[in-house]
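Researcher: Sequence recovery benchmark, item below. Answer with residues only.
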């Protein structure tokens, strides 16, 4: 028996999404599409796998996602491919391939899709998970940052969750800004080398900013006293950051300044942000994003600024609790007795469905009682009954399943009667 159960078990870290929960997913997806399109974003689809180097360059060799979490495999032609762990690098890769950046700017795109990372599964952390995201590419204006930050918060709210918005600026990589700051940070980390967790000690040379992301208590304690990028931004980056905040205040988005919120790679610039929500335990981030003005270059293209976010729909659902599920029941359930009535019921169902009326019928060969139960269970407003009397008279009975009221209509008029 145990073997049988194992045979049916989905792979570790993956989830089946079955009704009724799947209705909530559909709704989240459609809501995202509506909301993003309403702000001028167009849908984009990229392959679920890419050449591995797209992520090595576009996510970064020094990140855990690339070093530890990618599903990488060779295809029959010996190419190294990777299931996408995130959506931004593929979108920017597609833009470069099709030269979109040489056309009208900005390029505003949204995506919704499955991502894959070999992480240790726990609540809110899976190996296949669903993200919706947007990318606003081609503008370096602070208003683009504000639009993106606002839009993510707006979507999360529209799904019944109140996010906390954490906001930071990490400047740009030049010496006059983050570059200079990193030196100060490295000097500080060197001074405290012995107090850092072993993994974090290595980061001093590979990816010093990432020490702020450490989950190790000893490192966290050291970082409490670390110098902060906010105090070392160049004038242009400080002004940009102030303009973003101004725009967000202007449209009523409350945010918390988060001077320890970082993204560890050179092509991330200026604005970095995250949305969190209560009730999620240690995995409390619903989404995050930031400006990636150096990403197109990291992928081998020209300089094209951009900013975007990705939101995890699995976490959004956890944060929403057990949300009321908006199912999509049929309008009509057709109850039919006997061969002739059965034929008629299928005919009627197809006519109603073609006219856009949700209709369902018996596919199990049940008796009258069973079919009436199915009609109730279907959530339909009406049952159309084709029994012996009805077949003899040529009139169907239409029963309102909420009030129990009944009326009759000639077979050919059922559709008109129901769409009236
Ligand atoms: P990231 O691309 O790491 O910035 O993640 C953006 C969002 O995607 C996170 O805030 C989560 O909501 C979601 N996410 C990332 N990794 C996972 C995962 N392994 N399982 C579920 N959701 C995830």
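Model:
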């Amino acid at each position: 028996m145990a073997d049988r159960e194992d045979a049916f078990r989905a792979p570790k870290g993956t989830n089946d999404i079955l009704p009724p929960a799947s209705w909530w997913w559909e709704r989240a997806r459609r809501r995202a599409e509506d909301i993003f399109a309403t702000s001028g974003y167009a849908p984009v689809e990229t392959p679920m796998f890419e050449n591995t180097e797209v992520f090595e360059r576009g996510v970064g060799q020094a990140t855990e996602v690339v070093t530890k979490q990618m599903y990488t495999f060779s295809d029959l032609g010996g190419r190294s491919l990777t299931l996408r762990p995130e959506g931004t690098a593929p979108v920017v890769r597609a833009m470069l391939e099709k030269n979109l950046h040489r056309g009208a700017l900005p390029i505003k795109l949204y995506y919704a899709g499955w991502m894959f990372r070999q992480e240790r599964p726990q609540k809110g952390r899976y190996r296949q998970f669903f993200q919706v995201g947007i990318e606003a590419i081609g503008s370096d204006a602070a208003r683009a940052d504000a639009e993106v930050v606002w839009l993510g918060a707006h979507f999360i709210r529209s799904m019944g969750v109140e996010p906390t918005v954490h906001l930071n600026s990490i400047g740009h990589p030049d010496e006059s800004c983050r570059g200079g700051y990193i030196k100060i940070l490295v000097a500080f980390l060197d001074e405290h080398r012995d107090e850092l967790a072993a993994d974090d000690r290595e980061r001093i040379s590979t990816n010093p900013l990432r020490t702020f992301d450490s989950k190790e208590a000893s490192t966290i304690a050291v970082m409490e006293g670390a110098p902060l990028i906010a105090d070392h931004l160049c004038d242009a980056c400080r002004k940009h950051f102030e303009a973003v905040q101004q725009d967000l205040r202007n449209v009523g988005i409350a945010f918390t300044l988060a001077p320890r919120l970082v993204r560890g790679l050179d092509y991330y610039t200026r604005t970095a942000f995250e949305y969190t929500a209560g009730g999620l335990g240690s995995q409390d981030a619903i989404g995050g994003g930031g400006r990636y003005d150096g990403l197109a270059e990291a992928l081998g293209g020209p300089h094209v600024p951009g900013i975007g976010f990705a939101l995890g729909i699995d976490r959004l659902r956890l944060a929403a609790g057990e949300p009321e599920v908006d199912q999509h029941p049929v309008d009509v359930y057709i109850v039919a007795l006997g061969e002739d009535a059965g034929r008629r019921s299928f005919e009627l169902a197809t006519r109603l469905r073609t006219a856009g009326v949700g209709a369902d019928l018996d596919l199990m060969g049940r008796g009258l009682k069973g079919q009436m139960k199915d009609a109730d269970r279907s959530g339909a407003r009406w049952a159309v009954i084709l029994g012996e009397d009805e077949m003899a008279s040529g009139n169907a009975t239409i029963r309102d399943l909420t009030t129990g009221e009944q009326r009759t209509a000639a077979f050919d008029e059922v559709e008109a009667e129901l769409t009236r």
